[in-house]
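Instructor's aside before we start: the two examples that follow are unrelated to each other. I chose them only because their records fit on one page, so don't look for a connection. First example below.
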Amino acid sequence: MTDTLTITQPDDWHLHLRDGAYMAAVVNNSARCFGRALVMPNLADPIRTVADAAKYRERIMRALPPKSTFEPLMTLYLTAETPASEVDVALKSGFVLAVKLFPAGATTLSDSGLQSWREAIPVLESMQKSGMVLSIHGEVTDPEVDIFDREKVFIDRVLTKLVDAFPGLRIVLEHLSTKEAVSFVEAAGENVAGTITAHHLLLNRNDLLVGGIKPHFYCLPIVKTEQDRQALLKAATSGNSKFFLGTDSAPHPRSEKEAAIGKAGIYSAGHAISLYADLFDSAGELDKLEGFASFYGADFYRLPRNTTKVTLEKSNSEVIPAVLDYHDQELIPLKGGETVNWKG
């Protein structure tokens, strides 16, 4: 039995940190494990420009311990007013790696997003020409579409047309949640990839709903069927470089999750690599974890792979904290209070 696993330090290619004291309360949980993280721009005041991103990045860096080597990489929030010229500024910055497309109203703090990608054609043309990555929250917001079908319908109605219009655009479809999303990424060109979260690999809609609603399992895109979960697990553990790690870890205070209208988002950053290791180990594909967690994302974003190594230890007694301090609030992590078999 393998008792340790040494891999190249992983990166998180989809992370929410919030801002201010709440950001400071969680950023070190990511920094302890990940070498780099792609930080999402949907703050209360969205990160629309490279200047905004630089200031946000400085705030993140100030919240880190003095000797931390963690590198926050930034994204810009795509709006109908985003000028195409901002893409060139982003490329020259060296720290802005992607522009994020949120369909308006699709998720937390997405009201400034697009009604249609056609509102941003000049920006998309500039991104296709330059190689800048477009990361996408892939859900429609049509109220007539069932919430469990929103990703599938987005692929059919929106993403296929976007890819046809911009065949050279480099795209990351974020937080895949359906077998249809897996199939789309597999069939697309090498310029299209997808991130997969620990919670979509762990949970199905029975976990969310059977025996009572579990508010801390509520996220967007919502967890789907067991067949979808199995398709995601097969993709993640396949060794296919089009799929890589993105936690979509999103902290919300316990009071905002356990509420009449609970917020969408699952927090996993502090123990994510342990959860992924458990999943890969259970699938008999532990040797595929390093590629998924440490290599494929860096390769897609055209960055050098990390050189630092980290060692995970097999442990049957590592318990995820049931509750975390979150500035003046409480934060409930994914699988809080439960045992994981790998300590990261």
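Example two begins here.
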Amino acid sequence: MGKPMIMGRKTFESFPSPLPGRRHIVLTRDRTWREEGAEVAYSVDEALKLAASEHIAVIGGAEIFALMLPQADRIELTEVHISPEGDATVPPFGDGWYETFREDHEAESDRPAYSFVTLERHR
């Protein structure tokens, strides 16, 4: 809450409306795309300049995660302990990332088990 969010166009369009209390910076190649509630950027550098904040949430999709990973020093990850069908994956984070926090939650009713995990990069 309160942090600027960087996302791809499809992620933004998946919301029924913009999320309250945060800025929506949409990274897209489509120079004609505009949507109410979105600030548009066409490059990683432009998105980071628009965000102008020490703490930025990068919320997807997979291509945006891959583009932003070199800039990241911390990952707040939710691991959902199921194997759903899908057409997008987050690339491996690579070397230099270390788990510094984990909070596990058991499955409950129809909700699968999940874990909140913090990864930090040691440069």
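Residues 62 and 87 are 10 Å apart (CA to CA).
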